[in-house]
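To start, an entry.
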Amino acid sequence: MKKLYFIIGSQDLYGAKTLAQAEKDGFAMAAYLNDSLGNVQVEALPVVQTAAEARVCIVTANTDPDCIGVILWMHTFSPAKMWIGALQNLDKPMLHLHTQYNEKLPYDTIDMDFMNLNQSAHGDREFGFICTRLGIRREVVVGYYKNEAVLHRIRRFASAAAAVDFGKTMRVAMFGNNMRDVAVTDGDRVESEIHFGWNVNYYGIGDLCSCIDTVTEAQIDKKMQEYAGKYEMATDNIAAVREQAKYEIALEAFITREKIAAFTDTFQDLHGLKQLPGLAVQNLMAKGIGFGPEGDYKTSALNAVLVQMAKGREGATGFTEDYTYDLTEGSEVELAAHMLEVPPVFAAGKPKIEVHPLGIGGKEDPARLVFDGIAGEGIAVSLVDMGNRFRLICAEIELIRPCAPMPNLPTARLMWKLKPDFATGAAAWIYAGGAHHAVVSTALTVDDIRLYAKMTDTELVVIDSRTELHTLERELEMLDLMSQLKK
């Protein structure tokens, strides 16, 4: 399990007794967090008294591959100039926990010794100033550390930090390149690695075909058993389903061999394949592998990262595409789907395996999963390349059950309402440059994406129930201006 280091701030003026108590309290707090968070280990470091000790703590965190972030807390007053050198070198996400070891004041016995020891109200403001002065992007959590609301925010920080850490070593495979002439799905792969750590590389479809050639009938039989346990077989074209099983086995072998966390393909490069991968991709996404169609590596990588962030939470996270609308006045809804590859994590019931013609790609009819989507509050997240920076667009949505049966639609489908209303939500997405591909999640919230954006220093545009278009346009103008000033 990954870890957060718990760093306790003090100074060397209080004497051995006070410092020993500060360290004892800090270690007890770290042990409580370690037992309570569940999604990360928390390990305390010795109480920091000097600038040299602060640097040692930060070097320890920076060089530990299992460390995904740090929690800093000032038990006593801690003169902040001693933190400057350490903070300037911190390269892990930071949570500043503004709390106390004691929940209540001992009114009958409180004296200056107690005040000097328990002065986070003093020390954390001093520490907060130097973080702001240095431009340190961090999360500030306020409240008693045993309160569930505080623990919830620390867990959310840990999830976002784990996603950032995951991305720093993530490998993404592109089978073929970006769909010809399409703009929003394209992007700077080198800058993606500089900014997020995502190592994105092209592979010829022949690399996958070589893996397909090694798949045995026995392996396909086993994969078909897996499908039978998960899905309803609603086709007589078993050969088409077995072809998809072969693709999934080959993709699993390739993913394992190349240490791949996410991948793309494109219907414009299917040389050597009989079908466009459909069922194979859907089943892989259900196992946590990121995917983006038509060479959309950014959505593929973001898919994998957000699935990582959502681990252990209720709800679904996966790829889908804005497709079409019901524009009935006053009750407008969006129908989101894709020609094949919406993951079954969104299925409201047992998905069906069906085989239908596909009008693009020029290949045989592919097998795919068909289902209606779940209902619930969620978010849709898009990552776009603005040329001189990346931008995350995160929109709150309300997923709904289908308004009516769609017996002739041979795809998986989700339906949702936009916030704050259809006209504003759709216009805001378009003004912000949001793509037609997105990662949708009912497990994550805007606050999760806000944390991820902060930790990766990525521009964020939020569309929610409070969005007003004129204000949003001014915000986008300011973001453009700020990006020019940073050049």
